[in-house]
C-alpha cells in the first residue's frame, strides 16, 4: 500500500446511514486522493529540477500541513536526498531538502531550528571562530622591587640631591637594594689608626 492509500484509509469514516452519504464520502476521498497525487507529482518535478541544478545545494518548500510534508519526505527518500522539517506547526512549518554531497552540519541544522539565517558567510565566520587559536592568558608584569633611591630621596631632599645620592647607591644584587660600597670600610690602616687616636684624644680632652 502506497503513502496516499494509507493516508486515505486512516481518515475517519462516518457511520453508514444510507447509500447517499457513503457515495458522498467516497467522492470526497477520491478528490482528496487526486489532490495529493497532483501534489506528489509537483514535488517530484521540483526535486528532479533541484537535482539537475549543479549550483543548488538545498531547496526549501513553502510551509504546508503535516500530510503534505509527509508526501515531500516520502519523495525525498525515494530521490535519495536529505529532508528536514523546520518552523512552528500551523505557522511556518516547512521542509528543506539537501543534496547528499551537501549534507547540513549540526550547526547548520541548529541555526535553522532556531529560525536563524544560514549562508556561506555565516558558515565561514563560525569556521574562523572555531579555528582561531585561544588568546594566551596575560601574564602579570614582572615584579620590580621598590628600590629606586632617586624616587625615595626626591621626596625627602629634592630632585638634584636625589640624583647625587642615586649615583652613590648603585644596587648590588648580592646585597639587595643597599649599595655594597656603603657596607665596606675603604679607609687605609694608617688612616684608621689616626682616626682612633684622634677619637681617644677628644674623649680625654672632654674628661
Automatic annotation (TrEMBL):
Biased composition annotated in UniProt, kind: Basic residues: 198-207
InterPro entries tied to this protein: R3H_dom, R3H_dom_sf, SPAG7
Region entry Disordered, spans: 125-144, 168-207
Pfam families to which the protein is assigned, alphabetical: R3H
Cleaved signal peptide residues: none
Lineage top rank: taxon: Eukaryota
Record's protein name: R3H domain-containing protein
Location of the R3H domain: 37-101
Amino acid at each position: 500500500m502506497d503513502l496516499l492509500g494509507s493516508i486515505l484509509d486512516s481518515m475517519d469514516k462516518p457511520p453508514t446511514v444510507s447509500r447517499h452519504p457513503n457515495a458522498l464520502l467516497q467522492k470526497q476521498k477520491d478528490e482528496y486522493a487526486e489532490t495529493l497525487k497532483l501534489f506528489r507529482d509537483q514535488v517530484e518535478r521540483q526535486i528532479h529540477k533541484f537535482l539537475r541544478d549543479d549550483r543548488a545545494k538545498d531547496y526549501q518548500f513553502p510551509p504546508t500541513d503535516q500530510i503534505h510534508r509527509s508526501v515531500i519526505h516520502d519523495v525525498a527518500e525515494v530521490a535519495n536526498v536529505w529532508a528536514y522539517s523546520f518552523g512552528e506547526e500551523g505557522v511556518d512549518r516547512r521542509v528543506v531538502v539537501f543534496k547528499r554531497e551537501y549534507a547540513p552540519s549540526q550547526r547548520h541544522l541548529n541555526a535553522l531550528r532556531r529560525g536563524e539565517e544560514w549562508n556561506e558567510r555565516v558558515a565561514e565566520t563560525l569556521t574562523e571562530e572555531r579555528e582561531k587559536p585561544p588568546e594566551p592568558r596575560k601574564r602579570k608584569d614582572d615584579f620590580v622591587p621598590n628600590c629606586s633611591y632617586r624616587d625615595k630621596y626626591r621626596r625627602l631632599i629634592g630632585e638634584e640631591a636625589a640624583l647625587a645620592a642615586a649615583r652613590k647607591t648603585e644596587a648590588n644584587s648580592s646585597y639587595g637594594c643597599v649599595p655594597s660600597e656603603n657596607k665596606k670600610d675603604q679607609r687605609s690602616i694608617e688612616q684608621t689608626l689616626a682616626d682612633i687616636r684622634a677619637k681617644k684624644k677628644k674623649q680625654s680632652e672632654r674628661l
